[in-house]
Amino acid sequence: MEKLVIATRxxxxxxxxxxxxxxxxxxxxxxxxxELLGMTTEGDRELGQSLAKIGGKGLFIKxxxxxxxxxxxxxxxxxxxxxxxQLPPRFxxxxxxxxxxxxxxxxxxxxKNLSDLPSGAVVGTSSLRRxxxxxxxxxxxxxxxxxxxxxxxxGKLDGGHFDAIILAAAGLKRLGLSQRIAAYLSIEQCVPAxxxxxxxxxxxxxxxxxxxxxxxxxxxxxxLCVDLERAFSLRLSGSCTTPLGAYAELTQQGLSFGxxxxxxxxxxxxxxxxxxxxxxxxxxxxxxxxxxxMYDSGAQEILDSLA
Length: 307
Fold this sequence. Notes:
Blueprint: E1 3-9, H1 12-28, E2 33-39, H2 42-45, H3 51-54, H4 62-69, E3 75-79, E4 91-96, E5 104-107, E6 122-125, H5 128-137, E7 142-145, H6 150-158, E8 164-168, H7 169-174, E9 183-184, E10 199-204, H8 208-214, H9 220-235, E11 244-251, E12 254-262, E13 269-276, H10 280-296, H11 299-306
Parallel strand pairs: 1-2, 1-3, 6-7, 6-8
Antiparallel strand pairs: 3-10, 4-10, 5-8, 5-9, 11-12, 12-13
Helix pairs in contact: 9-10
């Protein structure tokens, strides 16, 4: 191929991600010409309501997918935490890139961490996963929805609308805003979203030329971890309306996996974890085991309450 077009949202973070992938491709294939096709998605336009009420995180993606279907673009770059666990027909993810920071970040201009916040302090977050976990630990805090791109959210904090906000640390780091992070939330304190910190490349499943090209950027170990997290979510019918987190990590000792499922108000929270050797079959067996434990502990009751 001589030319590739990357469909991207036009937020600063999305453009950073697209340009990052463009740099990787041009660095590996110097004769390849890579262009960006900037787009505004429905998820970017509908900022007045929560994502759960208007269709979920897929709203950030469907226009990008349409541009691939009609031939305007060859691929799209996504934060994997924004990618629904079930892709539409005709699409695939041929590459998952090196994973950045997976933890969430506490951001505040006045306080050092969540424990420093006084009773009644208002914390902004776009995520039911975060608020359901944190309200159980800090029932005296007020968690309110916060939408918009990263700069918009920081602007609302700086404007005094919130005492603190919780953001994915990876986005702050990628945009050179690490100095805004007052504290990191540990994986145990707040289990990350499925795929958080990882970037994925999506394209048409019948576009063999693009798949062959971008698959050379794939990181197999990261792909396995993200696939396991997505498999866990899929087995529990996870969606944008499901307060669910999952995180897999590979070390020299083996694979560790932890996950949570909760009610939106945090009144019921199920947490499971386990480990196994570095073997794909064993890893997916571990996932099946942890999912079953979730169901044995009342997962169906939580899922039914979300329907």
